Fold this sequence. Notes:
The chain is of the alpha/beta class and 588 residues long. The chain has helices at residues 8-19, 26-58, 63-111, 115-120, 123-142, 145-165, 167-173, 177-214, 216-221, 225-277, 283-324, 384-391, 414-419, 435-440, 448-458, 461-465, 484-497, 514-528, 563-569, 572-587, and strands spanning 345-353, 359-368, 373-378, 399-404, 407-408, 421-425, 502-506, 532-536, 548-553, 556-561.
Amino acid sequence: MSKNVEGKAFDFVLFKRIMTYVKPYNYIFYITAFLSIALASISLSRPILIQITIDDYIKKLDSEGLFYMTILLVSALIVESIFQYFFTLLGNLLGQNVIKDLRNQTFKKVINFKLKHFDNTPIGQLVTRTVSDIETIAEMFSGGILVILGDLLKIFAVVGYMFYRNWDLALITLIPIPILFIATSIFKKVIKKAFQDVREQVSRLNTFVQEHITGMSIVQLFNREDVEMEAFAEINKKHRTAHIKTVWAYSIFFPVVEILSALSIALLVWYGFKELAAGYGSTGDLFSFTLFVHMLYRPIRQLADRFNTLQMGMVSSERVFKVLDTNSFIKNEGKKSTTNLKGNIEFKNVWFAYNDEDWVLKNISFKIKQGENLAIVGATGAGKSSIINLLGRYYEIDKGEIYIEKTNVNEIELQQLREYMSIVLQDVFLFSDSVFNNITLYSEDITEEQVIDAAKKVGAHEFISKLPGGYQYNVKERGTMLSVGQRQLISFIRAYVHKPQVLILDEATSSIDSESEELIKHATSVLTKNRTSIIVAHRLSTIQNADKILVIDKGEIVEEGNHTELISKDGYYKKLYDYQFKHQHHTI
Length: 588
């Protein structure tokens, strides 16, 4: 998609799209545009005043007139400084307001992507799009669009006045300008390509750092520090190389501008003194034209930088809009309310694959009655968790239907469908926040009394009370300050206080110790009481009292019944049970 940015037509379309985010703040934009025009006019007045001062007062030794002209010049400088202050302030205010709205929209889009999108997209890339790429767009307004407008106005005003005042002196002075425009055009193309590479390398760097800090335990457990450091050094080297290309472009362009500026002044001095020697011309013109040359070259030199800022913003906005244009959502066309939904669930001939037709689930059919406790067992990769993902529509089924109270889940409003159930996962995720906020997830409907009551029933109140600050204790990132069992208990409280119609436990006891398992068993009995529940189990000892057990193998239901019935069949479940029992006995 980045190739399209090279095309002017696409640039215009993209630019128009960016400007739609300015509409709510048009009043700031117009005030800033006015200040830009005013600054161009005021800056033009200073050389003119200096020319008048020299020709009409200094040459005539008029001290009183010189005094008043000095006051006028100082006043113009003060007014210009005040205008520059408000121009900078409002330009940055406009940019920050635009990116605030754009970042909100981008993050709202990201958090509504279906999970399959995150399976295929590096998290660091999305972080870059939502944070640093959008930050670059702000610079388009604080140092790009409006500054370019002012610089262009200044250039046209200066050139126009120079020709009006002394066309032959202006013509001689501006001889190097075409060379400057050619150099600027080349620089603009080179720097744009260089900064595209910089943004790409920043994205790669962010992705690598985010993944490896998150997975630091694996890096250290497998003694991969040196290997990963070498990989990071290589990516960092490419990042440095990309930046050096931009430095190289600047280091060539700026000296070229200075040389051409010096050449213009040299031509001005040569021709100006030639005119003075011939008895015509103006000393004031010579001084004012010298200032005009500086005023002319500075914005032309900065224009390349401004256009670069604009292009960086365009490249970044293209990346951000690519996220905004990604239609990776679970279709939310359901209109039915879940207020009458209880706990009767039916899977009917369900087929599902994460990739094409590499089926994870094949023709799955079963029913759960309200208040029943269903357990799902099977080998790793058999498709147990996939059933859970389909029930909450975190992934879409490929064939078949799922019903809740004889209503197809596709017809139920997505948010209400997910409020209808609570899921406790094996790998509990806790945010870097208080225990209380991790339980309520910032819900205003859940009080502290309800949380404490739920913690007591689940059996977690004692350990939470002993934490520094109790329920306000910050568990740090991913809950690293707590044990696996403690994190699991907090997730049970989280599920309990949200009062789901259906409770889902996905391998909730597979990675905890025996002592914690007893607490979890108690918590499970509290949560599943008088509630439809689905338990994906690794330890068969935790599901022996289930009303129904589904045995999954290679995506198919191979056995179905309660614990006693399945043991008597002497099939897959019996072998799995005997293996676990013998293994536990051997371990003891």
